[in-house]
Design a protein that fits this description.
The protein has 15 helices and 17 strands. The protein is of the alpha/beta class and 451 residues long. It has 2 domains: 312 residues, FAD/NAD(P)-binding domain (3-Layer(bba) Sandwich); 103 residues. Strands 1, 2, 3, 4, 5, 6 and 17 form a 7-stranded mixed sheet that branches. A 4-stranded antiparallel sheet has the order 9-10-8-11, with helices on one face. A two-stranded antiparallel ribbon has the order 7-12. Strand 1, helix 1 and strand 2 form a beta-alpha-beta unit. The longest helix has 25 residues. The termini are far apart. Bound molecules: flavin-adenine dinucleotide. The site of flavin-adenine dinucleotide (FAD) has 39 residues, from helix 1, helix 2, strand 4 and helix 13.
């Protein structure tokens, strides 16, 4: 290895154009899925490009085991496509799961395989063209307008042309490749840790629940004791356990520190250290937790779960003050009620959690989705323009669905007008469509467009 970065020149060459569509969506996580569906349902031709062989993002790629709350503890805040996907996933689950979760909108466990099938079907129904196993690795642009993205896959290197591009890569890859303004993590470059989530089978839920007072529903007491006895190497005394049935549960447990998810070496280290940690944790669960004696490790994430990398600098940066004061904006396209949830950046640092009161939420303005200096890109998902603390809240899956639905709807409206200028959109027409599609943008806006 050398310290200086050596370079090599790639010869100029012509590459085939794979497709030309109204809307190109890069990334098939919650934000990309909702963006593609919304754009197609609003009449646009859509290509959704995803590097894996399935949709769902962190829920399916990294086995993140539950959807964060859709409500503000009083009413659903996230509605529209996000709520449709949650309800459709539930109705495809076993009857016992449905009986337990039918009325619940918060912390619903995710069955990754059901979600994958459901999302395939939804894309087909809506007429979205999906291209799997394909990475967006380069953009061609002129004066802040992206003319094409360059994709890489088994068929080779090709170009895709679109009117509007939706950057749902969660690392703001398109914006980065286009030379947009970005920030990453905290002032000292600190990042939330990654987690290798996993699925265990052959568990006995009833037995586990019968001793839950001793260990804690989230294993807090058991972890604390095991750490003090030197039997468990995890930093946080908490395990997120999401039961899919009486024998199978997804786990969000343990941290891997110092992983930058926009760096391939770090992702590789995260995969190796993450799997080693899961092996260690699973051994401890078998030895220590009643009901887990015969735990069978079924699955770890294809990639370590990443909470934080780049954020765009957008036309507006949503701040912690906006969060705390539950501010609304004239161009709101979604609302967020989830708490600020910043995981420890080092094993010795603490968690930061700031909750809003029940019934409260703040607006997410359309401007926070628009990267400064780029005309025809809309960013949706965890890379939108916020300060670091607000990213720790806005990043969760229900919010990403809502932002994606707004981005896709905006892209379709622009395609109808033949405009590539994301800032030319008439906000009332975007908000009115979102409300009619079932979104909740706050009572004031919803009341205005309810007819
Ligand atoms: C460990 C962990 C636990 C979490 N817990 C919860 C929880 O309990 N509940 C909750 O709601 N949220 C949770 N979150 C947050 C949430 O999962 C993510 O923030 C959310 O999924 C982000 O959605 P997204 O659409 O922005 O991107 P992602 O879900 O990250 O999806 C991005 C997609 O884009 C694809 N992609 C990326 N770059 C490219 C490229 N260049 N070309 C092609 N494809 C590309 C990826 O393969 C991926 O499928 C958790 C996150 C982590 C890491």
């Amino acid at each position: 290895m050398v310290d200086t970065v050596l370079t090599i020149q790639i010869p100029e060459r012509d590459i085939p154009i794979y497709a030309e569509v109204d809307v190109v969506v890069a990334g098939g996580g919650p934000s990309g899925v909702a963006a593609a569906l919304a754009a197609a349902r609003n009449g646009a031709s859509v290509l959704l490009i995803e590097q894996r062989g399935y949709l769902g993002g962190m829920a399916t790629v990294s086995q993140v085991p539950a959807f964060c709350p859709y409500t503000d503890h009083i009413k659903p805040v996230i509605r529209g496509i996000g709520l449709e996907i949650l309800n459709d996933m539930k109705s495809n689950m076993e009857e016992t799961f449905q009986n337990e979760w039918r009325e619940q909108l918060d912390w619903v466990p995710i069955d990754a395989e059901i979600l994958k099938r459901l999302l395939d079907e939804k894309m087909e129904e809506a007429g979205v063209k999906v291209l799997y196993h394909t990475f967006v690795g380069h953009v061609l642009q002129q004066s802040g307008i992206i003319e094409a993205v360059v994709i890489h896959n088994k068929s080779g290197t090709q170009a895709v042309k679109g009117n509007i591009y939706i950057d749902a890569t969660s690392d703001a890859d398109l914006t980065y490749l286009a030379g947009g303004e970005l920030v990453k993590g905290g002032d000292d470059g600190e990042l939330q840790p990654g987690t290798m989530c996993f699925v265990l089978n052959n568990l006995d839920r009833k037995k586990f629940l019968s001793s839950v007072e001793i260990h804690g529903r989230d294993l807090k007491h058991a972890i604390s004791k095991a750490k003090s006895e030197g039997r468990l190497r995890v930093a946080r005394e908490w395990a997120g356990i999401s039961w899919l049935n009486d024998h199978t549960a997804g786990f969000n447990f343990g941290h891997v520190f110092g992983i930058d998810g926009s760096n391939a070496d770090d992702l590789t280290r995260g995969a190796i250290e993450g799997r080693a940690l899961v092996e260690h944790i699973t051994g401890w669960l078998r030895e220590s937790i009643p009901g887990f004696e015969n735990a069978f490790l079924t699955l770890t994430g294809e990639q370590i779960g990443i909470r934080e990398t780049r954020r765009i600098i957008g036309d507006y940066i949503v701040t912690t003050d906006d969060f705390l004061k539950c501010r609304s904006f004239p161009d709101d396209i979604a609302r967020n009620a989830y708490f600020i949830d910043i995981h420890m950046t080092k094993p010795t640092s603490g968690m930061t959690m700031i909750h809003l009161a029940p019934g409260e939420s703040h607006g997410i303005p359309y401007r926070a989705l628009l990267p400064v200096g780029i005309e025809n890109v809309i960013v949706a998902g965890r890379a939108i323009s916020t300060d670091r603390a607000t990213q720790g809240s806005a990043r969760v899956m229900p919010n990403c669905f809502a932002m994606g639905e707004a981005a896709g709807t905006a892209a379709a409206i622009l395609a109808e007008k033949g405009s590539r200028r994301t800032r030319s959109i008439e906000i009332p027409s975007l908000q009115s469509r979102l409300v009619h599609q079932g979104a909740w943008l706050g009572d004031l806006i919803n009341e205005q467009y309810k007819e």
